[in-house]
Amino acid sequence: MQTDRKLRLAILASGNGSNAEKLIRYFAGHANIQIALIVSNNPKAFVLQRAKKCFVDSVVITRAQWENKKLVKSIFAGHQIDAIVLAGYLLLIPGWFLKMYPGRILNIHPALLPDFGGKGMYGMHVHRAVISSGADKSGISIHIVNENYDEGSLIFQKSLNILPGDTPESLAKRVLELEHRYYPRIVEHYFLDKTLPTE
Ligand code: GRF
What we know:
- This protein is α/β, with parallel strands linked by helices.
- Helix content is 35%, strand content 21%.
- It contains 6 helices and 7 strands, in the order βαβαβαβαβαββα.
- The chain has a 7-stranded mixed beta sheet, covered by helices on one side.
- α1 packs parallel to α6 and α5 (124-133) packs across α6 (168-193).
- The longest helix is centred in the last third of the chain and has 26 residues, at 168-193.
- The two termini are 14 Å apart.
């Protein structure tokens, strides 16, 4: 994206926010990208404490407040947000918001899409489903967000082997490590090296 200032990203997160913190730390002092805002739908989400600790602005936009387009637009415009990164964000992104950021909203999913994705497939639900399926691989998927859960174009996947004796918990831990290792770099690559689509 051509800009004479840093690209300003907002991270949307609903819970713990370990990926959000990895992104904040990775881009701290970066020449071209800045994490400018953390948005959560949940006022109790731990990600808000992480934002505070890292001196990043944060705001709560509840599910009900998302109905108020004017309010939401003013928040993102007020922080001059250029693009969005979802990191454990549980609400569906409305179509009118996707149109504000065409091709500029990324999500990470803790499995190899298109398998084990869709509504209700988040957190440990994903890893339990993967282990009970008997699959021999899982991994991470990073994709562009569209109007359906976990369905936009894939831009990156990395797999890992499921080991004998793996539990949903042990798998979750290794998948999260992969997310932390790759998400910041893929976000950087996607928003800097690629001409962003305008629709
Ligand atoms: C990650 O596994 C991510 O793939 C999924 O939600 C989880 C968020 O973890 N979308 P955290 O809040 O970043 O620790």
